[in-house]
Amino acid sequence: MKLVLLAMIVSIGFVPSAEAKVGLVRVVFTKAALIAGAGTGRGVLTYDGRDYPFRVSGLSVGLTFGASVMHLKGRASYLDRLSDFEGIYSSVGVGGAFVGGGGGVQLKNDKGVIITLYGAKAGLEFAVNLSGIRIAFR
């Protein structure tokens, strides 16, 4: 798990090409699960000097158990325009928490936007799963 988290954090340091625009992302996500899970959250995309609030909802299937609250931050890469950020993202993530812990996830949508997030988790959860995440501006 530590190796996967380290790889995700290192990938955040990757600098996309000069043509690709990057936004900073902050998300608070609440999740409950037993085999399949569901979660909701809210976040802010900082893009071209402005903040854009958004909603997050998702469903995960895989080896998942527990409930958690995650405070994640990271970046959204390959944004050609602001509207590319909204949509359905697929992800593969690994994380765990017992009272406190950490996790990371990388998301990609059909427009080529890649969101890499990492951060702290509070609660009791273990997860190795495939998720579908929907992001929509408020």
Could you characterize the architecture of this molecule?
The protein is mainly beta and 138 residues long. It starts with a helix and ends with a strand. The protein has one helix at residues 2-12; strands at residues 21-47, 50-79, 87-98, 100-109, 114-137. The chain contains one helix and five strands, in the order αβββββ. β3 (87-98) and β4 (100-109) form a beta hairpin. Helix content is 8%, strand content 75%. It is globular, with a radius of gyration of 14 Å. Strands 1, 2, 3, 4 and 5 form a five-stranded antiparallel beta sheet that branches.
Give keywords:
mainly beta; about 140 residues
Secondary structure elements and their pairing?
Layout: H1 2-12, E1 21-47, E2 50-79, E3 87-98, E4 100-109, E5 114-137
Antiparallel strand pairs: 1-2, 2-5, 3-4, 3-5, 4-5
| Helix and strand composition category | mainly beta
Count of extended strands: 5
- Biggest sheet layout: 5 strands, antiparallel
Report Rg: 14 Å
Helical residue percent?
A: under 10%
Uncertain stretches of 5 or more adjacent residues: 12-17, 94-99
Q: Can you give the mean pLDDT?
A: 74
> Distance between termini?
34 Å
Could you say which overall geometry the principal axes of the C-alpha atoms support? Answer: globular
Classify the beta-strand content into a percent band. over 45%
Order of helices and strands: HEEEEE
Instruction: Please give the count of helices.
Output: 1
